């Protein structure tokens, strides 16, 4: 199996070098490690990586430059897998990033505690999966008019966004597989979204709906 070539963007030198060394050790060679959004765009165009891992707040403005660069790169190269790392939820561009084809991850830095789990997420995103931190989903939900969803349905929605299968959700919530199927159907129906067996598309559809 070919290695997953990564372009890494992080303005903190120590964290950038630490992440680069970590990914290299786990068989994800970092072909470029940069410190700002402009350099990120240039590196992706030059290296044509299999995966982009980027901080969201980067120079020069330390706003959402990294996230905006990721969105622009995915428009330029549809399907480019991107994992965004942040201490905060940036609503506008977060939804736009997720609501595009191809693997995507949105992780909060404070919740990345297990190295092997983190690397596993990167591999899943590189393979086309969508993995969104449940806290990100909760914050998006909290700002959206989704009063029709029950508390349990919100729990299920958050787990779907993590990339969990129906069976995994059932184990996590200690309910039957049939109960999860019913919850998923209710969520899609209440949001006026068509049922779909593809977890990725369900996540994208639901999060796209949150835009409004």
Automatic annotation (TrEMBL):
Q: Which domain of life is it from?
A: Bacteria
Q: Where do the HTH luxR-type domain residues begin and end?
A: 142-212
The answer to whether keyword Transmembrane helix applies is no
Coiled-coil segments on the chain, per record: none
Q: Which Pfam families match?
A: GerE, Response_reg
Task: Set out the biological process GO terms recorded for this chain's protein.
Answer: phosphorelay signal transduction system; regulation of DNA-templated transcription
Q: What is this protein called?
A: Transcriptional regulator, LuxR family
What InterPro entries does this protein map onto?
CheY-like_superfamily, NreC/VraR/RcsB-like_REC, Sig_transdc_resp-reg_C-effctor, Sig_transdc_resp-reg_receiver, Tscrpt_reg_LuxR_C, WalR-like, WH-like_DNA-bd_sf
Example of a GO MF term? DNA binding
Residue span(s) of domain Response regulatory: 5-124
Q: Which residues carry this modification: 4-aspartylphosphate?
A: 55
- Keyword terms, alphabetized: DNA-binding, Phosphoprotein, Transcription, Transcription regulation
């Amino acid at each position: 199996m070919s290695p997953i070539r990564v372009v890494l963007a992080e303005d903190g030198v120590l964290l950038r070098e630490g992440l680069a060394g970590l990914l290299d050790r786990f068989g994800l060679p970092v072909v470029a490690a940069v410190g700002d959004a402009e350099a990120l765009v240039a590196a992706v165009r030059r290296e044509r990586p299999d995966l982009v891992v980027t901080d969201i707040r980067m120079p020069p403005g330390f706003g959402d430059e990294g996230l905006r660069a990721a969105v622009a790169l995915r428009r330029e190269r549809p399907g480019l897998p991107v994992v965004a790392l942040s201490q905060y939820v940036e609503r506008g561009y977060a939804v736009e990033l997720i609501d595009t084809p191809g693997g995507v991850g949105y992780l909060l830095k404070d919740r990345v505690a297990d190295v092997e789990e983190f690397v596993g997420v990167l591999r899943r995103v590189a393979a086309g999966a969508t993995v969104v931190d449940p806290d990100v989903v909760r914050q998006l939900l909290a700002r959206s008019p989704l009063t029709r969803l029950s508390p349990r349905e919100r729990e299920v929605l958050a787990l779907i966004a993590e990339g969990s299968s129906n069976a995994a959700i059932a184990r996590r919530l200690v309910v039957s597989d049939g109960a999860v199927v019913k919850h998923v159907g209710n969520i899609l129906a209440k949001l006026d979204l068509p049922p779909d067996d593809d977890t990725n598309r369900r996540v994208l559809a639901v999060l796209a709906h949150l835009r409004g």
